[in-house]
Design a protein that fits this description.
Rossmann fold, Enoyl reductase (ER) domain-containing protein, Quinone Oxidoreductase, Chain A, domain 1, 351 residues, ADH-like_C, alpha/beta, ADH_N_2, MDR_fam, 8 helices, seven-stranded mixed sheet
Length: 351
Amino acid sequence: MGKNKVGDEVQNKQIIFRDYVIGYPRETDLYISTTSTIKLQVPQGSKTVLVKNMFLSCDPTMQFLMRKDESPLSRSYKYIPGSPINGFGVAKILDSGHPSFIAGDLVWGTTGWEEYSLILNPDKLYKIHHTDVSLSYYTGILGMPGITAYAGIFEVGSVKKGDCVFISAASGAVGQLAGQFAKLLGCYVVGSAGSQEKVDLLKNKLGFDDAFNYKEELDLDAALKRYFPEGIDFYFEQVGGKMLDAVLLNMKVHGRIAICGMISQYNIPHPEALENLLHIAFKRLTIKGFTYRDHHHLYPNLLETVLPYIRENKVVYVEDIVEGLEKGPEALVGLFSGRNFGKQIVKVASV
């Protein structure tokens, strides 16, 4: 905390949401404010905690919180014009009125995009007990993306040894983990990504059996038949649109699809129509949508499974970290055009 101590009033740099967005968010929809101050102390008698933010997570669903119109996320979560945005992050507790937390604790959970945050509902924070791994991992492999990938492979998808697994958006925060989890189970795994550099990452660093650049494939159906000549057992869906339509043609009978996102559909006026839906019936497919919200009970399993693999370098997690809160708008907006290489993170401060 440097020379600042509990009880001091300090400047609190923030990233402010300018106004509701239509279509793709732009950097100008967010701005840096240095006019706010905060007292480094929780209100007397409250059960709040005051934190110093260290790492902030850039996640695709944050764009839904910028829209005024009805979206898949509740209006109660929407960003408020003129106020700081929020998202998942890693922080250090400076002062606490909550019995479960004390000053010095490291936590991950929802926090503000600012230097310091007063967390009104600390019950949704997770205390960090394992500090022998990078703290930034708690925005990714040991945070929400980790829960999502773990749930999709081990619970929703019921993936088993020998399955032929396809993962779209495979180099992103969730996809890179889902592929590695499937490989650990003994599956044949292929991923799609949006550049040759990302394809090389999947094949050479993350251990995928193969990968392709979807932007260079004129016929996605033909591409999938090339990589899955006998069909796909399990598809981890994060893209939607033309990719999903091509996958339906290539699923095996009784195949499974787990849907946790459809990023190709997020910013178009009218969702793309699917032409191959009859294959759901023909092939008796099981399709299930899910998010991390229903799978927090798996978090202890995730830690038990993944921490040894991280320590033994059997699981790799690729991060794209920018330094400084002022880099936040550029990092977040770049996520929606695939500018990031791995999990996009903003580093605000050190311990």
